[in-house]
Amino acid sequence: MSHNLFLHLIMCVILVSLPLSMAQHGGGTVVTELWCVAKNNADDAALQVSLDWACGQGGADCSRIQQGGPCYDPSDIQKTASYAFNDYYLKHGLTDDACSFSNTAALTSLNPSHGNCKFPSSKTVNNASISGSMGTLGMGPDTADLSASDLIAHSWLRPLILAHLFLVIVRIF
User: Mind giving me the DSSP string for the chain?
Assistant: First the structure.
């Protein structure tokens, strides 16, 4: 009788520890900020065409990249285009199509903010999948961000150890 009671007690500890362990790390949800930025290898002329479209027909708010704005830098088309691309991306569905600009832009998890120029972001990665996007996020070493993988691993470590302990105790009895 005490053997069954002991087994039930161990099972309860395991079942209780899983939700507690997951809650400790945000419920198992991985949240990563994403920005839409100009590609490093994009041609300046192509970036200018995409920038003009984003600030014109595209409806991006380009006031911060105008003269006197905190993101104004006429000598760096990549930074300027990145701000406009990101604004458009945030306003138009957070999809790969909203961050293409004739293949001159890409999503990144590296914050492009610089100095007083702060880029707003969208926290769109949940449970290791991209909400509303089926593209090629993270393809390449410059966009790889594995910082949240540690949280995922640790959220299962405690329940795994307890389950192993349970199996060892069951074999002993």
Answer: -HHHHHHHHHHHHHHHHHHHHHHHTGGG---EEEEEEE-TT--HHHHHHHHHHHHTTT----GGGSTTSTT--TT-HHHHHHHHHHHHHHHTTSSSGGG-TTTTEEEESS---BTTBPPP-EEEEETTEETT--S-TT-STTT---TTHHHHHHHHHHHHHHHHHHHHHHHH-
Higher pLDDT, 124 or 96: 96
Q: What is the pTM of this model?
A: 0.57
Higher pLDDT, 13 or 68: 68
**Residue whose entry in the numeric block shows the structure tokens 């900020």:** 33
Distance between CA atoms of residues 143 and 104, nearest Å:
15
